[in-house]
Structures are given as structure tokens and as C-alpha cells.
Amino acid sequence: MPRTADDSWDIATSVGATAVMVALARAAETASADPLIRDQFAEPLVSTPELAGVREQVAAWWAEDDDPDSTVDSQQMIDYQAVRTHFFDEYFTDAVAGGIRQVVILAAGLDSRAYRLDWPAGTVVYEIDVPKVLEYKSRTLAGHGATPIAERRAVPVDLRHDWPLALRGVDFDTSRPTAWLAEGLLPFLPAAAQEALFASIDALSAAGSRAAVENFGVDQAKRQEAEKRWANLKAKREARGQDTSFNPFDLWFEDGDRPDCGDWFAGHGWTTRVISAREEAVRLGREPVSDERPFANTFVTATKA
């Protein structure tokens, strides 16, 4: 369904279903012969009966097609998610090695880092997402006997609403440095909400805080070319009677120019570093077959002076 300003979702619909797609990729990577990352909680989180329909839709999205130029490459998606997860896992490892004990995961979805990373004693992980998504994750992992390694505090709020107030309501401490993560998030926010998100991160961050952002910026020509390929693929599949109900790009907000993430943080006094997803993939031995999305993305990290 197209996005609206006041829409909502659970784990099996709309933006929630994209979290399932990402976790399916992490589960596939974890089960592979030589995994780059290990997320032992991804498979239990996506294997519940209530997600059967989403699994079928994602399988249809990833299905091979006669036209290789149109097919969504599932292995490319799995490789990208492995590279992305590895990068941000290392970001958190470096942050806690530097003494940070307060972590905020924005739009946490089915992220299981509170349960699987080696957090030092005293670390608090705040997970922000809509209530139904957080409830599903907590319930499912508890049913498998999983307990978080860090102290996990759920913050059930939509990031388009007053999430800083909700965060303070569960004893977030603005005097302590924080490690923030915005992974797989920005296209699902209106442009104004993205600007407000960055401003709130800056306002809530003590000196020494860090932020990591997945930047989806890509030049308009490449973006239009990619959208044309998706439209052609959808038309062909619909003509054959195949399932075309799942398309995460339908959920992106297209509402004007957005500032470059690195430029925004640098302009507000943060020291920034921008890493090409493609270059990171090559470094990790997962060279992509093309420079198109998602490997056209970048990973931005920033530290507040």
C-alpha cells in the first residue's frame, strides 16, 4: 500500500514486512557454508506461522525470471545484508570499546543485536519502533527462551511522533555518550521527519556520542533506471499471474530533496566518515555483481566533539 502521513503497521504488513525480508536474508547468510555474520535469532523470528504470507511474498519477489536484467537477485540481497550487518556490528563493537554504554537502535524491527552482541556489563540498548513490531519480537524471542545480553529497553513509538519524549520516559540519560544507529530506515521516513530525526540525535547526544547511518542516496538517473526495471518486472509477472504484492520500494517516501547524511552531521560539528557499501563488500570478499542498489548505498559514521 502507498504510504500516508498517518499509516501504521504490524510485523506482517507495510514497513513491518520489509523487516521480515531483511531478517530472512540474515537467516540465509547465517545458514550458509561460510557466513560473514551470525544471527542465530533471525531464523526463529521469521519462521512463525503468522509470517507465512510474508515469506511467500518475499520468495516471489526474489524468484528468478527469464530476463536477468529484471530479476531481483536474492543472493545479491543476502550478500548486501551480510555486509551491512557486519559493518554496523563492528561499529557497536568499537563504540563500547571506546567506553560507550548507552545504545539507541532507531526503527529496530527484527534487529537482535541486544541478544547476540558481546555487550559489556552496564550497557543499555534502547530499541525504538512501533508497538506491534516490538511486541512481536519480544514475544517470539521469549518463546524461544532467549534473553538479551545487554539491558534492553523497548521504546514503542513511531519515529514520526515525539520519540525523544518516549525515550526520556524510559530513563535515557542525555548526559552520557550514546551510540545511535539508523539502519535501513531513512527512505521510510518523510523528508521532514528525517531532518527532525537528525536534529533530535544531535540535541540528545552528549560529547563523545557516535552515530551510524545507512545512506540510500543515489543519483536520480540511476534511481529512475532501477524503478523502470522494477516496473517492467512487475508487469511481466502480473501478466503471468504471479504474486507482485510485495515491493519495498512502494513504501519509500518521495517527498523532496534530502540533505546528504555526512554533510548534515559535519555541518553540525560532528566528525564524519563515509564508506562505500561496494568498497566494504569488496574488502569483505563479497564483491557485488553490479554497482546498482543496494551496493550504491553508503555507510556514514559520525562522532560528536
Helix-strand blueprint:
Blueprint: H1 14-30, H2 42-46, H3 52-62, H4 74-97, E1 102-106, H5 113-116, E2 124-129, H6 131-143, E3 151-156, H7 163-168, E4 179-182, H8 191-204, E5 210-215, H9 220-239, H10 261-267, E6 270-276, H11 277-283, E7 298-304
Parallel strand pairs: 1-2, 1-4, 2-3, 4-5
Antiparallel strand pairs: 5-7, 6-7
Helix pairs in contact: 1-4
The termini sit apart by 42 Å
Helix content: 40-55%
Q: Can you write the helix and strand succession as a string?
A: HHHHEHEHEHEHEHHEHE
Multimeric status of the protein: single chain
Features:
single chain; 305 residues; alpha/beta; seven-stranded mixed sheet; 11 helices; 7 strands
Explain what the structure shows.
Helix 1 packs across helix 4. The protein has eleven helices and seven strands. With 305 residues, the protein is α/β, with parallel strands linked by helices. Helix 8 links the parallel strand 4 and strand 5. It has a seven-stranded mixed sheet with strand order 3-2-1-4-5-7-6, sandwiched between helices. It is 42% helix and 13% strand.
